[in-house]
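Structure tokens please, single chain.
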Amino acid sequence: MSGSTRPFSSTVRPVRPARPVRTAAVAVLGVLTALVTATACGGSSSSHTAAAATPPPAPVASIDATPARLSVAQLPDSAVEGWKLLAPARTQAVAGGIQLNECASVAGATSWQQQAYISVYRTPAEQDVFTFHDAPAAKAAYQDLLARMGACQSQSRALQAKSHLADDATVAATATTAQGTAWSRKWTGVEGISAAGPQTNHLYAVQQGASLAIVHFDEWAGTQAAPYDTRADQDVLTAVAGQLG
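Here you go.
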């Protein structure tokens, strides 16, 4: 439920730079632009062990010639948020897992298409489309996501308590379809994977065939004129499923 995702592995697990609530537009754009342009989307916080006579690494990310899975008009609350593409969609191979937020991750995919957006409020959104070897593998990843999000409220509160914040996180499923689920997390965010401060994070997951699509966007306190109405989440899930068809 953060505005960007990060790859992780058993040895290196990069952490995104923190984005303060209501941060300057330049800072937000810098973080998200780095996300969609950095090799393997590792970011500047990744650490790598150098080896002697290591050949130059081959590029693993490329600009996708196809348009984004969702248009800006199809993103949640588009009339209010005024979403814009941050950069062309990019597709890369996946060697490990991708962390979605403090609670959930996606593992086992063979490729990952990523599209970043930014709102008129300088808040982030993203769509990630993961492709697996087959439909059972994609379904297993979706079922794992369901289980992890089911425990997200308690995990988020534990993280808050550890950071000496009020454990006020609430996580709820806001819509379901035969293929997908939407969640909303309202909390005082802990700096790290999420921005710090009061916010609401929205996450949508749709599995169809060998694909698993994830859409997420953030509302930071004090930026939007009115909170997003999650009664529209059913339509968002339907739109994502339609694009995967």
